C-alpha cells in the first residue's frame, strides 16, 4: 500500500442554533460554536475532527477563534507531509513542539483516527482496542433554572425513554436557593431517575461542606466539581466527608492532572473529556489511571456536535466499566446539524455506528450555511 501523507488541514468555525438557552454557573449559552477540522490525505481520504468549547473563554483558555488560528498557523506546518497512517507518530510530533491546546489537539487526533478507520474499513472504537458495548446511556442537563420547568422537562424525557439521568447546573444562585431547587426536583422524580449536580467550582469550601451534606442526605447521586480546581487540599477534605461521591471535572486538564488527583485521593469519580485530555487515545490514558486507583468513570462532554460526540463515544465504548454512564447529549441541544445522519438516541442510549471511522459524513450545504464568514 502506498504511504498516505497529510496534505492539508482546514479549520472551520460553525455557529449552530440551540433548542433553548443553556444556563451554566459561569455563562449562559445562546448558541453553540463548533470548530470543525478537515484533514485531507494524499490517498483522497478525509478525516473529520471537532474542537468545541463552552462559552468562549468563560470556561477555559481556548476559544473557537484561537483554536482555528492555532490549528492553521502552528499545527498544520508540523503535520503536512507526515505519514497519515501513523497516528502515534503524528501526535508525538505535536507533543514535542506544542504545549497545552488540548481542544485543538483533540480535533487533530480525532481526524487522524477517522481517516485511518476509513482507510482500513474499521470503526474508531476498533482502532482503540475494540468496543465492549454498542450503546451508551446518556444523561440530560436540566438548565432552565426554573424548578417547575425543569421537573416538566424531566418528566417528558422519561416518557420519551430518552433520559433517566438528570444533571442540574447550580452555583450561580445563593446556596440555599440552589439546594431547595435540587431537592424539589429529586423529590418529584423519586426513584425513577438519577439526579446529579454540577457546581462548576462556584462554591467555597464552607458552602460545599453544607451543600454536599444536604444533597447527599436528599438522594443526590453525584456532586461534580463543587470547589475550585486549585484548592486541592479542600478537594481531598470534601471527598473524605461528603455523603455523596465527588466527581473531578475542571480539575482534570491533562493526563498528568488525573495522576495527581488519584494520588491525593481528591475525587472518587473522574469525568472523562477528550477535549481536555487531547483526544480519544489520550482520554483512555486518564481512564487507565483511574481504574488502577479504583476511581469510577463518567463520560463527559463539552457539548460537542455529532463529530466530537461520536469521537468521545467510540473511546467510551472500549472501557471495561463506565459506572456513572455519560452525558453525550450535545447534538440534542442543536436545532440544526452539519452531518448527513445525526446520532441516534433511543431507549435512554446513544447508539454508536460500527461503520468505518467515526461513521459520519458532512452535509456540505448545511456546513456552508452555518459556517462563520
Category from helices, strands and their pairing:
alpha/beta
Q: Runs with pLDDT <50, length 5+?
A: none
CATH class of the largest domain: Alpha Beta
Strand arrangement within the widest β-sheet reads 5-6-7-8-9-10-11
CATH topology of the largest domain, which one? Answer: TIM Barrel
Number of domains: 2
Question: What gross morphology would you assign?
Answer: globular
Largest pleated sheet: 7 strands, parallel
Radius of gyration: 20 Å
Give the second-level CATH assignment, the architecture of the largest domain: Alpha-Beta Barrel
CATH superfamily placement of the largest domain: Enolase-like C-terminal domain
Overview of this structure, please?
- One of its GO terms (biological process) is peptide metabolic process.
- This is Muconate cycloisomerase.
- By secondary structure, the chain is an alpha/beta fold.
- It folds into two domains: 6-121 and 363-370, 2-Layer Sandwich (Enolase-like, domain 1), CATH 3.30.390.10; 127-351, TIM Barrel (Alpha-Beta Barrel), CATH 3.20.20.120.
- Helix content is 40%, strand content 20%.
- It has 14 helices and 13 strands.
- The protein has helices spanning 64-79, 87-97, 102-120, 124-127, 147-159, 175-189, 205-217, 232-241, 255-264, 274-277, 280-293, 306-316, 330-333, 364-370; strands at residues 6-23, 28-41, 46-52, 135-137, 140-142, 165-169, 194-198, 222-224, 246-248, 269-272, 296-299, 344-346, 349-351.
- It has a seven-stranded parallel β-sheet.
- Strand 12 (344-346) and strand 13 form a beta hairpin.
- It is globular and about 60 Å long.
- The relative contact order is 0.16.
- The mean pLDDT is 95.
Amino acid at each position: 500500500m502506498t504511504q498516505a501523507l497529510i496534505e492539508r488541514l482546514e479549520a472551520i468555525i460553525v455557529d449552530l442554533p440551540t433548542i433553548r438557552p443553556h444556563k451554566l454557573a459561569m455563562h449562559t449559552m445562546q448558541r453553540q460554536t463548533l470548530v470543525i477540522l478537515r484533514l485531507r490525505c494524499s490517498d483522497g481520504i478525509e478525516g473529520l475532527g471537532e474542537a468545541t468549547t463552552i462559552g468562549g473563554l468563560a470556561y477555559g483558555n481556548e476559544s473557537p477563534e484561537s483554536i482555528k488560528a492555532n490549528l492553521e498557523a502552528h499545527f498544520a506546518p508540523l503535520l503536512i507531509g507526515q505519514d497519515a497512517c501513523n497516528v502515534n507518530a503524528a501526535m508525538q510530533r505535536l507533543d514535542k513542539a506544542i504545549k497545552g491546546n488540548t481542544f485543538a489537539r483533540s480535533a487533530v487526533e480525532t481526524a487522524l483516527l477517522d481517516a485511518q478507520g476509513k482507510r482500513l474499513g474499521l470503526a474508531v472504537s476498533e482502532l482503540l482496542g475494540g468496543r465492549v458495548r454498542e450503546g451508551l446511556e446518556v444523561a440530560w442537563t436540566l438548565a432552565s433554572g426554573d424548578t417547575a420547568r425543569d421537573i416538566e422537562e424531566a418528566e417528558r424525557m422519561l416518557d420519551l425513554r430518552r433520559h433517566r439521568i438528570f444533571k442540574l447546573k447550580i452555583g450561580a444562585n445563593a446556596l440555599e436557593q440552589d439546594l431547595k431547587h435540587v431537592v424539589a426536583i429529586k423529590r418529584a422524580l423519586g426513584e425513577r431517575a438519577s439526579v446529579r449536580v454540577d457546581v462548576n467550582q462556584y462554591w467555597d469550601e464552607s458552602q460545599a461542606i453544607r451543600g454536599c451534606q444536604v444533597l447527599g442526605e436528599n438522594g443526590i447521586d453525584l456532586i461534580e466539581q463543587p470547589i475550585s480546581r486549585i484548592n486541592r487540599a479542600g478537594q481531598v477534605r470534601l471527598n473524605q466527608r461528603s455523603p455523596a461521591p465527588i466527581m473531578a471535572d475542571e480539575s482534570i486538564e491533562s493526563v498528568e492532572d488525573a495522576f495527581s488527583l488519584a494520588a491525593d485521593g481528591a475525587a472518587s469519580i473522574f469525568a472523562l473529556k477528550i477535549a481536555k485530555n487531547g483526544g480519544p487515545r489520550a482520554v483512555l490514558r486518564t481512564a487507565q489511571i483511574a481504574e488502577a486507583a479504583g476511581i469510577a468513570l463518567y463520560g463527559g462532554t463539552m457539548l460537542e456536535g455529532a463529530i466530537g460526540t461520536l469521537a468521545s463515544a467510540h473511546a467510551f465504548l472500549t472501557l471495561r466499566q463506565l459506572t456513572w454512564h455519560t452525558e453525550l447529549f450535545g447534538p440534542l441541544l442543536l436545532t440544526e446539524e452539519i452531518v448527513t445522519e445525526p446520532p441516534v438516541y433511543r431507549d435512554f442510549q446513544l447508539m454508536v455506528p460500527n461503520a468505518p471511522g467515526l461513521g459520519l459524513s458532512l452535509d456540505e450545504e448545511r456546513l456552508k450555511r452555518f459556517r462563520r464568514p
